[in-house]
Design a protein that fits this description.
Layout: H1 3-29, H2 32-35, H3 42-46, E1 49-53, H4 58-69, E2 73-78, H5 81-95, E3 99-103, H6 111-118, E4 123-128, H7 147-176, E5 179-184, H8 197-217, E6 222-227, H9 249-257, E7 265-266, H10 270-281, H11 284-287, H12 290-303
Length: 312
Amino acid sequence: MDLLELFFIVLGAAVIVCYGVRLLLFTRMLFPKMWFPLSKSFFTSMGEWAVVTGASEGIGRAYAFALAEQGMDVVILSRTKATLDQVAKEIGASTGQRVKVIATDLMEDVFSEIEDQLRCLNIGVLVNNVGMLPSFIPCKFLECAELDQTITKVINCNVKTMAKMCRIILPAMENRGKGVIVNISSGVASIPFPLYSLYAASKVFVERFSQGLHAEYKDKGIIIQAVTPFGVSTRMADYQKTNIVTLSPEDFVKSSLQYIRAGDKTYGSVCHIVLGWLLQCVPLEILYADSILLSLQNYVKKRRHPPLKVTL
């Protein structure tokens, strides 16, 4: 056996091992209860309180309920006090846990006031859920209505708010040596996504920021994870009918919490894991073809309900 033949044998073996490991890691995600088990006291062991932004409806509301059901008291933040009060009443009635309401516009400079209201709480979990989709109907960047204002709103809501809330909550977690931070990104951040360019780019920040923070603080006992769902039936998604791909907020959150110990990023459910894998396997030249983008626009227009405001 000459040297060149040996080289190709070793190279082939390395490729097989590499793809075997990747397959194993992929299959682990299909069985989270087996690979990433959580004790019944996992969340309460992190701290007494959970903080959830954008908690008046949709995914945020579902996280607030789910964490209260795990025995945590919850702080819920959003703009509409009446809606928050109703959510707080329902959580208290169904779980018996305490609920603190903070009605505030997170796109404004309100973070010093929020920090004051959270200062004395033993916060074990933070869910940064609040987000804004500029338009449910896909459109090119320059065709977005009120573009200058939209740019500012998307960055403030999807980027600044998440970073500021981490800045407020993370120091106490570091001091205690434990905590969980969940930052809600989006499946569209898996690739550069035409017609949702601004939104997708803002969610890439969420993903990369979360992964960087996790690397910085995992040795301190803190889990920081980006959750990147595709279809969830919320106001932002125009309340699409639930099916195998589009999940209810409650089903998605229940599934995503099983992946808390799965690393710095998760799609949150088996069907969305498969979708993410498929999306990244398709050549971008195909996805970016004009006919495909036009078909996407037409498909969304046909499926949408009567116009709804999409800022959460």
